[in-house]
Design goal:
The protein has 274 residues and is α+β, with helices and mostly antiparallel strands. The chain folds into two domains: 115 residues, 2-Layer Sandwich (D-amino Acid Aminotransferase, Chain A, domain 1); 146 residues, D-amino Acid Aminotransferase, Chain A, domain 2. 24% of the residues lie in helices and 29% in strands. Strands 7, 8, 9, 10, 11, 12, 13, 14 and 15 form a nine-stranded mixed sheet that branches. It has a six-stranded antiparallel sheet with strand order 2-1-6-5-3-4.
């Protein structure tokens, strides 16, 4: 079952015109939302980022995106797809109408899909450094969708490597993010993460980890680090809406993994505060 422009339909009944602007021009964005125990985790943060994305793309979101109606429909969709306990929901939003590069309208069409999922594994991961593509900072780089091909190409490189994930750098060789996660590290009880103008996505997990640290009095630094400086980290970890995973290997070199009360508290608190 799908949810298309507020209407529940079967997947086989979905029909989109060839003029669809997501297909023709990638004139769109998307959100990945976790459904956990009958709730949309971090929903208000997703709403905030959708509003930011819409403003960047000059799109006009319907009022029900921010007034609660869509939230209830998305939970109904999760129930119909047996994904209420734990599910992965994707909400795709694109500009309606046709046109060439210059659009006819700024209103939107949207589609939601959801499927049962499982919590992320707890094992540490190994990462390499992406060689074929860089992140690109722009007014569109902070949300998901417009730069999808960067992560697609990085994913192809990862598939042909021995690593669990790849570290993406910006054109100046500065650390930006992983393929589908933001990057964090702790040095002497300070939290570090790449600055947004390295081209990384302003992830939902990123927002929540930074918010919690600041509320807890943990210093937060958004920085410009070379990959080599990551070896200074006491703990290096990746985070997205699905989960948090330590990184134990970078370019084949074993990383430090010090005992950290702050990291343990981030693990304990991060998803409880949804």
């Amino acid at each position: 079952m799908l949810l298309y422009n507020g209407q529940f339909i079967l997947e086989k009944d979905l029909k989109l015109p060839i003029s669809n602007r997501a297909f023709q021009y990638n004139d769109s964005f998307f959100e990945t939302v976790m459904v956990v125990d009958g709730k949309l985790r971090f929903w208000q943060d997703h709403v905030d980022r959708m509003q930011e994305a819409a403003a960047s793309l000059k799109l006009e979101l319907p009022l029900y995106f921010t007034e609660g109606t869509i939230e209830q429909q998305l939970l109904q969709l999760a129930e119909q797809n047996q994904a209420v306990k734990y599910g992965r929901l994707k909400l795709k939003v694109w500009r309606a109408g046709a046109g060439l590069y210059t659009p006819e309208v700024n209103s939107v069409d949207w589609l939601a899909t959801v499927a049962p999922a499982a919590p992320t594994a707890s094992e540490s991961i190994s990462i390499g450094i992406c060689q074929i593509i860089n992140t690109i900072y722009s007014p569109l780089s902070h949300f998901k969708g417009p730069n999808a091909l960067i992560y697609t190409l990085a994913g192809i490189e990862k598939k042909n490597s021995s690593y669990d994930d790849l570290l993406l750098l910006n054109p100046q060789g500065v650390v930006s993010e992983l393929i589908s996660s933001n990057l964090f590290w702790l040095i002497q009880d300070k939290l570090y993460t790449p600055a947004l103008d390295t081209g990384c996505v302003n992830g939902i997990a990123r927002r929540n980890i930074i918010r919690w640290c600041r509320q807890a009095g943990v210093p937060v630094k958004e920085v410009y680090f070379s990959p080599e400086r990551l070896f200074e980290a006491d703990v290096l970890f990746a985070a997205n809406v699905i989960g948090i995973r330590k990184i134990n290997l970078l370019k084949g070199v074993i990383l430090k993994s010090e005992s950290s009360d702050i990291f343990n508290k981030i693990m304990d608190k991060h998803f409880i505060q949804a």
